Recover the amino acids of this structure.
């Protein structure tokens, strides 16, 4: 799985206040330079999501397959929620009767709990995408990885009103045996992808659609984004990809757990 590196560096100002972030009423963006490189201060440890009995362990292997079987496709949406783009993505999904998995960054979930609850209310699933989207997580200590995963789990669960994330996607695919085991012990299946649409590069909706059509044979889990910049191309691409998938006989569903 490809890593998204410096070209997507959005999180430099998050890491120093990952758990105490205050979002300005003006809606100023929190997406700046990437942070969390080895040696930087980790987010302050807090209590993980409550160790409730609903957190049943799942497989530690990285999931790619769809619950819908051989003709199933998984739409996954990363890095939100975002007050501008997440509602537009939800609109397109609703128009086509498609359910998706939203891989949320903890600070974004904390900032926009109404959007987290809207995602849940519309029947989509939640995925833990760490506190601050550090693509170098695998180069940091287990303590750091634990904070990133468990604090994000707590943020997302609290924002949703108690609905826990069902998956964990490491930023940039930076999984480790430890992070996979930890997530799985919390009932969050490690989640990979097969088709990286590279929509974060804003190559144009035509290019995003062409990538899906060309690479779908690689596997059923498609990676899109609803935050981190202008996602108008993603919205347009989804508007075209979803009916194309249906016309090819695919059914959109959720990743296996």
């Amino acid at each position: 799985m490809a890593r998204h590196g410096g070209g997507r560096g959005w999180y430099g100002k998050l890491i120093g206040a990952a758990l105490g972030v205050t979002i300005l009423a003006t809606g100023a963006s929190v997406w700046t330079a990437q942070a969390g490189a080895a040696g930087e201060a980790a987010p302050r440890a807090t209590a993980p999501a409550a160790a409730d009995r609903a957190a049943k362990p799942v497989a530690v292997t990285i999931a790619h397959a769809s619950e819908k079987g051989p003709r199933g496709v998984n739409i996954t949406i990363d890095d939100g929620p975002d007050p501008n783009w997440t509602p537009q993505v939800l609109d397109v999904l609703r128009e086509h009767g498609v359910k998706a998995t939203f891989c949320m960054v903890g600070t974004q979930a904390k900032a926009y709990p109404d959007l987290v609850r809207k995602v849940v209310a519309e029947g989509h699933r939640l995925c833990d995408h760490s506190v601050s989207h550090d693509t170098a997580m695998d180069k940091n200590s287990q303590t750091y990885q634990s904070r990133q995963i468990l604090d994000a789990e707590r943020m997302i669960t609290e924002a949703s009103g108690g609905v826990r994330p069902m998956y964990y996607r490491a930023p940039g695919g930076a999984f480790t045996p430890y992070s996979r085991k930890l997530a799985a012990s919390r009932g969050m299946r490690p989640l990979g992808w097969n088709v990286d649409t590279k929509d974060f590069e804003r190559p144009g909706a035509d290019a995003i659609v062409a990538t899906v059509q060309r690479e779908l044979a690689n596997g059923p889990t498609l990676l899109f984004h609803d935050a981190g910049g202008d996602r108008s191309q993603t919205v347009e691409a989804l508007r075209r990809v979803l009916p194309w998938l249906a016309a090819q006989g695919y059914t959109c569903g959720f990743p296996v757990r």
